[in-house]
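re: ur question from earlier - yeah i can do the single chain one, its not a big deal. heres the input i used so u can compare w yours
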Amino acid sequence: MTIPDRLELTVGPPAHGGHCVSRVDGRVVFVRHALPGERVVAVVTQERRGYWRADAVEVLTASAERVAPPCPYAGPGPASCGGCDLQHASVPAQLAWKADVVRDQLARLAGLPDVPVRVDAVPGGPLGWRSRVRYAVSPLGMAGLRAHRSATVVPVDECLIAVGSSDVLSRSWPPGSSVEVVASSGGDSTVLVDGSPVSGPPLVREHAGGREWTVDAGAFWQVHPRAADTLAAAVRELLAPEPGWPTWDLYGGAGLFSAVLADAVGPQGTVTLVESDPRGAAAARRNLADLRTVRVVHDRVERVLSRLPPPEAVVLDPPRTGAGAAVVRRIVAAGPRAVAYVACDPAAFARDVGTFRTLGWRLAALRAYDLFPMTQHVECVGLLVGPAWRGSAGCGRAAVGAVSGL
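and the output i got, formated as tokens:
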């Protein structure tokens, strides 16, 4: 089929990836910069076997939820960055978009149709929230953001969702390098070039869960200032671990969830944190040194699970790619009552939920949070329960029934 210069089409529902789904003569077209129900003119940007990618370049019939993007670099065209997918949508429409995507992924990949999903906003508003930003540097030495699905660097004067980057964007940097700006909740500001600090402290302070944390400036920490407390509270409420329980914190990073578990299970319980990144494991040992019930294991999760003492409850916070079927099977084989699964990718989350279901587990509760406003990304916390959960005294008592019929 010859690709036309311009497509006039009606936009369908949102899909995972920051676009909406449409069809032209039976061919699927993934359309960015549009909203469900709109009639638009689109230009094909990429051809793949069985589908096209396209940008909406003219809106013929606009959705009532369409707004003017606050950032001049948002929208279609070669001068646009690929970071913010949803600046053209109102904030309520962004929340509804993300809820639709989570619901669709659970239906398609986990076999759970019609799961009730609500995405909650967190305080702070849709702009000026991102505390960690990595910029690419063009061949001319200008820092910027990459265009969508491209290595092209778009120089920008300001990133409206970022905190404290304007000075970095006005300077020259080594061509081809990456520049990361960190503005911690503890008031520290660090700039790293290719992972090495060039200004500011190499360890930055963060505040979460009533504790102060020191983490490597280039290591993982939640990018939204409210994310750590929001997720920690959700994990504790859903999982509801009891005093004396042995627990696991998998992909534990600096130990945020281990601190929550240690407080809940008390001096008679135990927490085993597993983290493969040496910076994360070192941060966990440093920050949790006062919690004698926490043991930090620096290893890959898939290698070490068979050697750990059986848990009653597990916190599972894998990278964007998910835990994977092999890890899920080993967790289930260890016999915990429940798992609190923290996920930043709804497709990976849904695939793993599907694996839990094939092993006799069920999704008992689900929370979703808009920790990445203006973008397609959404954070979920799911409570997965196994056969041992039934009739137990703990494991998310308040959450039972939040996801009915699963």
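The chain has three domains: 7-66, 132-216, 227-399. not sure if urs matches, ping me
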